[in-house]
């Protein structure tokens, strides 16, 4: 079991050098700003790598905003939440590790595990097929999206998605998501 990341700083690092820190307060606006900042800092990468990294970052930050227990409604269709993320770029093999952390209600754990289990052993062809099925059938459709987050992420990572739950105050858990691309 890893240590808690929830109260850590959000940052981008290359190898072991911290390049940039980001706010742990996540809003729709900050998601766009954060992803654009990361794209600008990593301009030397291939367009495909930047596109994959950007799409994954948007997805994981939206998930924090949508599912954290501390998400606040700011009115006018705006929300904010606290969550952390780290992006570690590895120059030797041109790869990335992304790790996110947010606090969820313990009741959300079974839903996350179910969605994770559904996709964890699928290859790219099977993931695309499942994505099409869910979009057509509107299975898992909810007010926050189509339930395609893990599928979108799984189609772009180079290693299986890793999830972890750490007990956190009363009926809550810290949800840690680790991705490699």
How would you describe this structure in keywords?
alpha+beta, single chain, 9 strands, three-stranded antiparallel beta sheet, globular, 181 residues, six-stranded mixed beta sheet
Distance, first to last CA = 22 Å
- Secondary structure tally, helices: 5
How many domains in all? Answer: 1
Q: What's the helix-strand series?
A: EEEHHEEEEHHHEE
Major sheet summary line: 6 strands, mixed
Q: Strand order across the biggest sheet?
A: 2-1-6-7-9-8
User: Level of helix content?
Assistant: 25-40%
Unreliable spans = none
Rg from Cα: 16 Å
Overall mean confidence score, pLDDT: 88
What class, by secondary structure content? alpha+beta
Bin the strand percentage: 25-35%
Name the overall outline.
globular
Please tally the β strands and state the result.
9
Task: Give a structural overview.
The chain has helices spanning about 30-40, 45-65, 110-120, 125-135, 150-155; strands at about 10-15, 15-20, 25, 70-75, 80, 85-90, 95-105, 160-170, 170-180. The strands form two sheets. It has a six-stranded mixed beta sheet with strand order 2-1-6-7-9-8, covered by helices on one side. The protein is about 35% helix and about 30% strand. With about 180 residues, the protein is α+β, with helices and mostly antiparallel strands. Helix 1 (about 30-40) runs antiparallel to helix 2 (about 45-65). The chain is globular, with a radius of gyration of 16 Å. The model has no long low-confidence stretch (mean pLDDT about 90). The two termini are about 20 Å apart.
């Amino acid at each position: 079991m890893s240590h808690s990341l929830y109260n850590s700083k959000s940052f981008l690092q290359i190898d072991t050098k911290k390049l940039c820190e980001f706010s742990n307060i996540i809003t729709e606006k900050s998601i766009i700003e954060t992803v654009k900042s990361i794209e600008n800092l990593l301009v030397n990468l291939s367009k495909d790598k930047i596109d994959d990294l950007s799409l994954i970052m948007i997805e994981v930050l939206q998930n924090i905003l949508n599912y954290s227990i501390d998400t606040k409604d700011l009115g006018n269709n705006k929300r904010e939440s606290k969550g952390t993320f780290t992006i570690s770029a590895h120059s030797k093999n041109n790869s990335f590790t992304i790790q996110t952390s947010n606090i969820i209600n313990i009741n959300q754990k079974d839903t996350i595990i179910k969605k994770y289990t559904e996709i964890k052993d699928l290859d790219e062809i099977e993931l695309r097929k499942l994505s099409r099925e869910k979009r057509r059938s509107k299975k898992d459709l909810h007010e926050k999206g189509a339930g395609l987050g893990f599928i979108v992420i799984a189609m772009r990572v180079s290693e299986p998605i890793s999830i972890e739950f750490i007990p956190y105050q009363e009926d809550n858990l810290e949800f840690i998501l680790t991705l490699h691309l």
